[in-house]
Protein backbone atom coordinates (compact mmCIF):
# COMPACT_ATOMS: atom_id res chain seq x y z
CA UNK A 1 0.00 0.00 0.00
CA UNK A 2 1.28 3.50 -0.84
CA UNK A 3 2.16 5.52 2.23
CA UNK A 4 0.62 8.98 2.43
CA UNK A 5 1.89 11.77 4.65
CA UNK A 6 -0.21 14.66 5.93
CA UNK A 7 0.98 18.25 5.65
CA UNK A 8 1.69 18.07 9.40
CA UNK A 9 4.01 15.04 9.26
CA UNK A 10 7.13 17.13 9.98
CA UNK A 11 5.38 18.78 12.96
CA UNK A 12 4.66 15.34 14.41
CA UNK A 13 8.28 14.26 13.91
CA UNK A 14 9.49 17.36 15.79
CA UNK A 15 7.23 16.39 18.69
CA UNK A 16 8.69 12.86 18.79
CA UNK A 17 5.56 11.07 17.62
CA UNK A 18 5.39 7.31 17.18
CA UNK A 19 3.74 6.61 13.82
CA UNK A 20 1.38 3.93 12.58
CA UNK A 21 -0.30 3.15 9.28
CA UNK A 22 -3.97 4.09 9.24
CA UNK A 23 -5.94 3.85 6.01
CA UNK A 24 -2.69 4.10 4.06
CA UNK A 25 -1.54 7.20 5.96
CA UNK A 26 1.42 7.54 8.31
CA UNK A 27 -0.30 9.00 11.37
CA UNK A 28 0.87 9.80 14.91
CA UNK A 29 -0.13 6.94 17.25
CA UNK A 30 1.06 8.84 20.31
CA UNK A 31 3.62 11.48 21.23
CA UNK A 32 4.59 10.28 24.70
CA UNK A 33 1.91 8.63 26.83
CA UNK A 34 -1.41 7.71 25.23
CA UNK A 35 -2.92 7.67 28.73
CA UNK A 36 -1.75 11.24 29.40
CA UNK A 37 -3.13 12.33 26.01
CA UNK A 38 -6.49 10.72 26.80
CA UNK A 39 -6.75 12.45 30.18
CA UNK A 40 -5.66 15.77 28.67
CA UNK A 41 -8.67 15.72 26.31
CA UNK A 42 -11.08 14.90 29.16
CA UNK A 43 -9.63 17.53 31.53
CA UNK A 44 -8.25 20.29 29.31
CA UNK A 45 -7.77 19.97 25.53
CA UNK A 46 -6.10 17.79 22.92
CA UNK A 47 -4.77 18.74 19.48
CA UNK A 48 -5.35 16.21 16.69
CA UNK A 49 -4.27 15.91 13.06
CA UNK A 50 -7.23 14.51 11.12
CA UNK A 51 -5.88 15.35 7.67
CA UNK A 52 -6.21 11.72 6.58
CA UNK A 53 -10.00 12.24 6.46
CA UNK A 54 -11.63 12.96 3.11
CA UNK A 55 -13.31 16.14 1.87
CA UNK A 56 -15.70 15.89 -1.07
CA UNK A 57 -17.62 18.94 -2.32
CA UNK A 58 -21.04 18.36 -3.88
CA UNK A 59 -22.41 21.42 -5.66
CA UNK A 60 -25.07 22.35 -8.19
CA UNK A 61 -28.78 23.11 -8.47
CA UNK A 62 -29.73 19.53 -7.54
CA UNK A 63 -27.04 18.92 -4.89
CA UNK A 64 -29.54 18.43 -2.06
CA UNK A 65 -31.76 16.07 -4.07
CA UNK A 66 -28.71 14.16 -5.25
CA UNK A 67 -27.42 13.60 -1.70
CA UNK A 68 -30.91 12.42 -0.68
CA UNK A 69 -30.47 9.80 -3.43
CA UNK A 70 -26.81 8.96 -2.66
CA UNK A 71 -26.99 8.79 1.17
CA UNK A 72 -29.52 7.20 3.54
CA UNK A 73 -30.38 10.45 5.39
CA UNK A 74 -32.63 13.31 4.38
CA UNK A 75 -29.86 15.77 3.57
CA UNK A 76 -32.23 18.22 1.85
CA UNK A 77 -33.85 18.95 5.23
CA UNK A 78 -30.62 20.44 6.61
CA UNK A 79 -30.43 24.17 7.19
CA UNK A 80 -27.46 26.08 5.76
CA UNK A 81 -24.66 26.06 8.35
CA UNK A 82 -25.70 22.75 9.89
CA UNK A 83 -24.06 19.31 9.78
CA UNK A 84 -25.60 15.86 9.69
CA UNK A 85 -24.29 12.38 10.47
CA UNK A 86 -25.26 9.86 7.80
CA UNK A 87 -24.29 6.67 5.99
CA UNK A 88 -23.52 5.78 2.42
CA UNK A 89 -24.72 2.26 1.66
CA UNK A 90 -24.61 -0.10 -1.31
CA UNK A 91 -27.66 -1.55 -3.04
CA UNK A 92 -27.63 -4.48 -0.57
CA UNK A 93 -27.84 -2.13 2.40
CA UNK A 94 -24.24 -2.76 3.42
CA UNK A 95 -22.45 0.24 4.95
CA UNK A 96 -19.73 1.70 2.69
CA UNK A 97 -18.94 4.38 5.28
CA UNK A 98 -20.35 6.63 7.95
CA UNK A 99 -19.75 10.31 7.30
CA UNK A 100 -20.66 13.88 8.15
CA UNK A 101 -22.21 16.24 5.62
CA UNK A 102 -22.03 20.02 6.05
CA UNK A 103 -24.45 22.30 4.23
CA UNK A 104 -22.47 25.35 3.17
CA UNK A 105 -25.08 26.90 0.88
CA UNK A 106 -28.36 26.25 -0.89
CA UNK A 107 -26.47 24.30 -3.56
CA UNK A 108 -23.19 23.54 -1.76
CA UNK A 109 -22.35 20.62 0.56
CA UNK A 110 -19.15 19.23 2.05
CA UNK A 111 -19.08 15.46 2.63
CA UNK A 112 -16.40 14.16 5.03
CA UNK A 113 -15.74 10.40 4.85
CA UNK A 114 -13.29 8.37 6.93
CA UNK A 115 -9.62 8.04 6.02
CA UNK A 116 -9.54 4.49 4.65
CA UNK A 117 -12.79 5.02 2.77
CA UNK A 118 -12.19 8.53 1.39
CA UNK A 119 -11.34 7.45 -2.16
CA UNK A 120 -14.09 4.82 -2.20
CA UNK A 121 -16.71 7.31 -1.07
CA UNK A 122 -15.52 10.00 -3.51
CA UNK A 123 -15.66 7.42 -6.29
CA UNK A 124 -19.11 6.19 -5.27
CA UNK A 125 -20.47 9.75 -5.19
CA UNK A 126 -18.97 10.51 -8.60
CA UNK A 127 -20.43 7.30 -10.01
CA UNK A 128 -23.84 8.01 -8.50
CA UNK A 129 -23.71 11.54 -9.87
CA UNK A 130 -23.09 10.07 -13.32
CA UNK A 131 -26.01 7.68 -13.08
CA UNK A 132 -28.13 10.33 -11.42
CA UNK A 133 -27.53 12.77 -14.26
CA UNK A 134 -29.33 10.33 -16.53
CA UNK A 135 -32.29 10.83 -14.22
CA UNK A 136 -32.00 14.59 -14.32
CA UNK A 137 -29.73 15.56 -11.38
CA UNK A 138 -27.54 18.58 -12.13
CA UNK A 139 -24.61 18.18 -9.73
CA UNK A 140 -20.80 18.31 -9.59
CA UNK A 141 -18.66 16.12 -7.31
CA UNK A 142 -15.16 17.38 -6.50
CA UNK A 143 -12.73 15.42 -4.30
CA UNK A 144 -10.65 18.02 -2.43
CA UNK A 145 -9.08 15.53 0.01
CA UNK A 146 -5.55 15.83 -1.40
CA UNK A 147 -5.51 19.62 -0.88
CA UNK A 148 -7.22 19.86 2.52
CA UNK A 149 -5.97 19.41 6.07
CA UNK A 150 -8.16 18.98 9.14
CA UNK A 151 -7.07 19.95 12.66
CA UNK A 152 -9.17 19.23 15.74
CA UNK A 153 -9.08 20.84 19.17
CA UNK A 154 -11.11 18.73 21.59
CA UNK A 155 -11.81 19.14 25.29
CA UNK A 156 -13.40 21.49 27.85
CA UNK A 157 -10.85 24.27 27.16
CA UNK A 158 -11.12 24.00 23.34
CA UNK A 159 -13.33 27.08 22.92
CA UNK A 160 -11.18 29.30 25.14
CA UNK A 161 -8.03 28.29 23.26
CA UNK A 162 -9.49 28.95 19.82
CA UNK A 163 -10.78 32.37 20.83
CA UNK A 164 -7.17 33.55 21.26
CA UNK A 165 -6.67 33.22 17.48
CA UNK A 166 -9.94 34.95 16.57
CA UNK A 167 -10.46 38.76 16.58
CA UNK A 168 -12.57 39.86 19.55
CA UNK A 169 -15.25 41.27 17.23
CA UNK A 170 -15.82 37.78 15.82
CA UNK A 171 -15.80 35.79 19.09
CA UNK A 172 -19.56 35.27 18.83
CA UNK A 173 -18.99 33.17 15.69
CA UNK A 174 -17.21 30.64 17.91
CA UNK A 175 -19.10 30.95 21.21
CA UNK A 176 -22.48 30.91 19.45
CA UNK A 177 -21.67 27.91 17.26
CA UNK A 178 -23.96 24.99 18.08
CA UNK A 179 -22.99 21.31 18.08
CA UNK A 180 -23.11 19.83 14.56
CA UNK A 181 -22.88 23.23 12.91
CA UNK A 182 -20.14 25.04 10.99
CA UNK A 183 -19.21 28.61 10.11
CA UNK A 184 -16.41 30.53 8.38
CA UNK A 185 -14.26 32.20 11.04
CA UNK A 186 -11.29 34.60 10.64
CA UNK A 187 -8.21 33.08 12.31
CA UNK A 188 -5.06 35.08 12.93
CA UNK A 189 -1.92 33.01 12.33
CA UNK A 190 1.21 33.09 10.21
CA UNK A 191 1.21 36.88 10.34
CA UNK A 192 -2.18 37.29 8.66
CA UNK A 193 -5.92 36.72 9.06
CA UNK A 194 -7.59 33.95 7.11
CA UNK A 195 -11.20 32.74 6.96
CA UNK A 196 -11.36 29.02 7.74
CA UNK A 197 -14.30 26.62 8.03
CA UNK A 198 -14.82 25.82 11.71
CA UNK A 199 -17.12 22.95 12.75
CA UNK A 200 -18.29 22.14 16.25
CA UNK A 201 -17.94 18.41 15.81
CA UNK A 202 -15.67 15.70 17.14
CA UNK A 203 -15.02 12.07 17.93
CA UNK A 204 -14.07 12.20 21.60
CA UNK A 205 -17.27 12.75 23.58
CA UNK A 206 -16.04 16.22 24.60
CA UNK A 207 -16.89 19.68 23.38
CA UNK A 208 -14.56 20.51 20.53
CA UNK A 209 -13.93 21.84 17.08
CA UNK A 210 -12.56 20.74 13.71
CA UNK A 211 -10.85 23.27 11.44
CA UNK A 212 -10.56 22.81 7.68
CA UNK A 213 -7.43 24.44 6.26
CA UNK A 214 -5.44 24.28 3.02
CA UNK A 215 -2.39 22.01 3.21
CA UNK A 216 -0.04 24.95 2.64
CA UNK A 217 -1.34 26.70 5.77
CA UNK A 218 -1.79 23.68 8.05
CA UNK A 219 1.64 23.77 9.73
CA UNK A 220 1.33 27.50 10.49
CA UNK A 221 -2.08 26.97 12.09
CA UNK A 222 -0.84 23.98 14.11
CA UNK A 223 2.17 26.00 15.34
CA UNK A 224 -0.06 28.96 16.24
CA UNK A 225 -2.36 26.75 18.32
CA UNK A 226 0.60 25.25 20.18
CA UNK A 227 2.08 28.73 20.73
CA UNK A 228 -1.02 30.40 22.18
CA UNK A 229 -1.86 27.55 24.58
CA UNK A 230 -0.79 28.07 28.17
CA UNK A 231 1.48 25.52 29.83
CA UNK A 232 -0.11 22.05 29.86
CA UNK A 233 -3.38 23.39 28.46
CA UNK A 234 -3.25 21.86 24.96
CA UNK A 235 -1.69 18.43 24.41
CA UNK A 236 -0.94 16.99 20.95
CA UNK A 237 -2.79 13.66 20.85
CA UNK A 238 -2.52 10.66 18.55
CA UNK A 239 -4.74 7.89 17.23
CA UNK A 240 -4.34 5.70 20.34
CA UNK A 241 -6.04 8.22 22.62
CA UNK A 242 -8.55 9.10 19.90
CA UNK A 243 -9.60 5.44 19.87
CA UNK A 244 -9.98 5.13 23.66
CA UNK A 245 -11.89 8.44 23.77
CA UNK A 246 -14.34 7.47 21.02
CA UNK A 247 -14.89 4.05 22.62
CA UNK A 248 -15.83 5.62 25.96
CA UNK A 249 -18.20 7.91 24.03
CA UNK A 250 -19.80 4.87 22.33
CA UNK A 251 -18.94 6.12 18.84
CA UNK A 252 -18.59 3.47 16.09
CA UNK A 253 -15.40 3.02 14.09
CA UNK A 254 -15.64 1.84 10.51
CA UNK A 255 -13.96 -1.55 10.18
CA UNK A 256 -14.85 -2.39 13.78
CA UNK A 257 -18.53 -1.62 14.49
CA UNK A 258 -19.48 -0.78 10.89
CA UNK A 259 -18.81 -2.70 7.68
CA UNK A 260 -20.21 -3.77 4.32
CA UNK A 261 -21.39 -6.99 5.97
CA UNK A 262 -23.28 -5.18 8.71
CA UNK A 263 -26.41 -3.05 8.59
CA UNK A 264 -27.53 0.21 10.22
CA UNK A 265 -30.28 -1.39 12.32
CA UNK A 266 -27.99 -3.91 14.02
CA UNK A 267 -25.53 -1.05 14.64
CA UNK A 268 -28.20 0.99 16.42
CA UNK A 269 -28.24 3.54 13.58
CA UNK A 270 -31.81 2.91 12.42
CA UNK A 271 -32.83 6.56 13.08
CA UNK A 272 -30.15 7.67 10.58
CA UNK A 273 -31.97 5.81 7.77
CA UNK A 274 -34.75 8.00 6.36
CA UNK A 275 -36.94 5.32 4.78
CA UNK A 276 -39.87 7.78 4.71
CA UNK A 277 -38.14 10.42 2.56
CA UNK A 278 -39.59 10.96 -0.89
CA UNK A 279 -38.08 9.16 -3.85
CA UNK A 280 -35.60 6.35 -4.06
CA UNK A 281 -32.12 6.18 -2.59
CA UNK A 282 -29.29 3.68 -2.97
CA UNK A 283 -30.02 0.70 -0.72
CA UNK A 284 -33.57 1.75 0.16
CA UNK A 285 -35.32 -1.48 -0.85
CA UNK A 286 -32.74 -3.67 0.90
CA UNK A 287 -32.79 -1.57 4.07
CA UNK A 288 -36.60 -1.52 4.17
CA UNK A 289 -36.58 -5.32 3.90
CA UNK A 290 -34.00 -5.63 6.69
CA UNK A 291 -36.07 -3.42 8.97
CA UNK A 292 -39.24 -5.34 8.11
CA UNK A 293 -37.44 -8.59 8.97
CA UNK A 294 -36.57 -7.21 12.41
CA UNK A 295 -32.84 -6.68 11.98
CA UNK A 296 -31.35 -5.51 15.27
CA UNK A 297 -34.76 -5.68 16.96
CA UNK A 298 -36.11 -9.23 16.89
CA UNK A 299 -33.60 -11.07 14.72
CA UNK A 300 -29.82 -11.36 14.40
CA UNK A 301 -27.44 -9.45 16.62
CA UNK A 302 -27.33 -5.88 17.92
CA UNK A 303 -24.49 -3.62 19.00
CA UNK A 304 -24.31 -3.15 22.78
CA UNK A 305 -22.00 -1.77 25.41
CA UNK A 306 -20.33 -4.19 27.83
CA UNK A 307 -18.94 -3.17 31.22
CA UNK A 308 -16.24 -5.39 32.70
CA UNK A 309 -16.85 -6.64 36.24
CA UNK A 310 -13.23 -7.71 36.59
CA UNK A 311 -9.96 -6.10 35.57
CA UNK A 312 -9.20 -7.78 32.25
CA UNK A 313 -10.37 -6.19 28.99
CA UNK A 314 -11.91 -7.81 25.94
CA UNK A 315 -10.47 -6.99 22.52
CA UNK A 316 -11.78 -6.97 18.97
CA UNK A 317 -13.02 -10.36 17.67
CA UNK A 318 -13.04 -12.01 21.12
CA UNK A 319 -16.15 -14.24 21.50
CA UNK A 320 -18.99 -13.17 23.79
CA UNK A 321 -20.47 -16.04 25.82
CA UNK A 322 -23.67 -16.88 27.69
CA UNK A 323 -23.50 -20.03 29.79
CA UNK A 324 -20.44 -21.07 27.81
CA UNK A 325 -22.12 -20.69 24.41
CA UNK A 326 -20.98 -18.12 21.84
CA UNK A 327 -23.66 -15.43 21.50
CA UNK A 328 -21.68 -12.56 20.03
CA UNK A 329 -18.35 -10.96 19.19
CA UNK A 330 -16.44 -7.96 20.52
CA UNK A 331 -15.81 -5.20 17.99
CA UNK A 332 -13.77 -2.82 20.20
CA UNK A 333 -12.57 -3.12 23.77
CA UNK A 334 -9.97 -1.89 26.24
CA UNK A 335 -9.61 -0.59 29.81
CA UNK A 336 -11.38 2.78 30.18
CA UNK A 337 -8.88 5.40 31.39
CA UNK A 338 -11.69 7.72 32.52
CA UNK A 339 -13.96 5.19 34.21
CA UNK A 340 -11.39 2.79 35.63
CA UNK A 341 -12.90 -0.47 34.38
CA UNK A 342 -12.85 -2.41 31.09
CA UNK A 343 -15.38 -1.46 28.41
CA UNK A 344 -16.26 -3.03 25.08
CA UNK A 345 -18.70 -2.77 22.23
CA UNK A 346 -19.96 -6.03 20.82
CA UNK A 347 -22.60 -7.53 18.56
CA UNK A 348 -24.76 -9.81 20.71
CA UNK A 349 -27.86 -11.93 19.99
CA UNK A 350 -30.86 -9.57 20.26
CA UNK A 351 -32.44 -11.62 23.05
CA UNK A 352 -29.46 -10.77 25.29
CA UNK A 353 -29.21 -7.01 24.76
CA UNK A 354 -31.17 -5.68 27.75
CA UNK A 355 -29.01 -3.56 30.11
CA UNK A 356 -28.03 -5.62 33.14
CA UNK A 357 -27.76 -8.89 31.19
CA UNK A 358 -24.81 -10.93 32.48
CA UNK A 359 -22.43 -12.13 29.78
CA UNK A 360 -18.82 -13.28 29.56
CA UNK A 361 -16.02 -12.49 27.15
CA UNK A 362 -13.72 -15.35 26.24
CA UNK A 363 -10.29 -13.94 27.10
CA UNK A 364 -8.09 -16.54 25.44
CA UNK A 365 -9.80 -19.50 27.07
CA UNK A 366 -10.90 -17.85 30.32
CA UNK A 367 -14.42 -16.50 30.73
CA UNK A 368 -14.35 -12.96 32.15
CA UNK A 369 -17.63 -11.48 33.50
CA UNK A 370 -19.22 -8.46 31.80
CA UNK A 371 -22.69 -6.94 31.82
CA UNK A 372 -24.69 -5.17 29.14
CA UNK A 373 -24.94 -1.40 29.70
CA UNK A 374 -26.48 1.44 27.73
CA UNK A 375 -24.19 3.42 25.43
CA UNK A 376 -22.35 5.72 25.74
CA UNK A 377 -20.15 4.59 28.62
CA UNK A 378 -19.07 8.18 29.24
CA UNK A 379 -21.06 11.41 28.88
CA UNK A 380 -19.50 14.78 29.58
CA UNK A 381 -20.98 17.18 32.11
CA UNK A 382 -22.50 20.16 30.29
UniProtKB/TrEMBL annotation:
Q: Which UniProt keywords apply?
A: Aminotransferase, Methyltransferase, Transferase
Superkingdom, natural source? Bacteria
Q: GO molecular function, one example? A: aminomethyltransferase activity
A single Gene Ontology CC term: cytosol
Q: What class of enzyme is it?
A: transferase
Q: Which Gene3D superfamilies match?
A: Aminomethyltransferase beta-barrel domains, Aminomethyltransferase fragment, Probable tRNA modification gtpase trme, domain 1
The alphabetized list of GO BP terms reads: glycine decarboxylation via glycine cleavage system; methylation
- Tell me the residue numbers annotated for binding substrate: 210
Q: Which residues belong to any copy of the Aminomethyltransferase C-terminal domain? A: 301-379
Q: Domain GCVT N-terminal spans what residues? A: 8-277
Enzyme Commission designation: 2.1.2.10
The reaction(s) catalysed by this protein are: N(6)-[(R)-S(8)-aminomethyldihydrolipoyl]-L-lysyl-[protein] + (6S)-5,6,7,8-tetrahydrofolate = N(6)-[(R)-dihydrolipoyl]-L-lysyl-[protein] + (6R)-5,10-methylene-5,6,7,8-tetrahydrofolate + NH4(+)
Give the matching PANTHER family. Answer: AMINOMETHYLTRANSFERASE, AMINOMETHYLTRANSFERASE, MITOCHONDRIAL
HAMAP family xrefs: GcvT (MF_00259)
Role noted for this protein: The glycine cleavage system catalyzes the degradation of glycine.
Q: Which family does it belong to?
A: Belongs to the GcvT family.
**How is the quaternary structure described?**
The glycine cleavage system is composed of four proteins: P, T, L and H.
What is this protein's name?
A: Aminomethyltransferase
What species does this protein belong to?
Arthrobacter oryzae
Amino acid sequence: MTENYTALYEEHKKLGASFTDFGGWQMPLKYSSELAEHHAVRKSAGLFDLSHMGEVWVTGPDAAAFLDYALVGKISAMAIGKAKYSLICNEDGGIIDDLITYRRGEQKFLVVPNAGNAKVVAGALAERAGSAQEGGFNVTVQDASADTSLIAVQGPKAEAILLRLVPAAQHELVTGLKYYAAVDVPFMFGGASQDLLLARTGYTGEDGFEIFVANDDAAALWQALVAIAEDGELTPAGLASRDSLRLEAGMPLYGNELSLEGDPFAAGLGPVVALSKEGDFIGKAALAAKKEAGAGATTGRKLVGLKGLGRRAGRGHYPVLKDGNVVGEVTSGQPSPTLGYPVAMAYVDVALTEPGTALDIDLRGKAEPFEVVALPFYKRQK
